[in-house]
Design goal:
- The chain has 192 residues and is mostly beta strands.
- 14% of the residues lie in helices and 41% in strands.
- The chain is built from four helices and 13 strands.
Length: 192
Amino acid sequence: MKNEWQKEIFRNREYWGKIIAISDDKIIAVADDYNEIREKALKITKNFSCFTVPKRMDVYHIRPFRIKSIQRHEWIPSYQIGFVFDSGELIQKDMLIDSGADISVVNYQFGEVLGFRKDTHDISYTAEGFAGSVNFLLKEQIIEIDGFRFTNRFAWLQDAELNDMIIGREIVFDLFDIEFKQADEEIIFKKR
């Protein structure tokens, strides 16, 4: 199901940094805090949901956000991703599968292994996450998931201290239906 309200928050900057109330796939109220949004929405309907719109919808978001809980399932949702070199060589790499990341990420060191170089025509971008921001360059690389090869776009992190390796939504989540089975510690990729 396509959410019209999601398309609207990308198009209309007045929602950025606000809390919105949604009912029947439409934005019914906008406010600065939850008490205000609840009050406004209840005047219209009792059946609504709330969404906090990020302050910037025009930047990439990469959110490796980890909280230790008292009781936890010790499993990281990672999957073997194959990286295909021009020579045909294939290197497998375990990567976090993250539906909260807008784009896939390779760390600085692995990007160098892949042959990524900073060119004069490269544009430096900034990604925002819970821990702050990081600069990256956009690079493309052929990858393989369960025998299917395609070109994926990656944010090549420019901070050598960061070790994140993430498969985000862009491209990959359009090509595969991805099922997370935490109790079985399994991720299933189904080609669309």
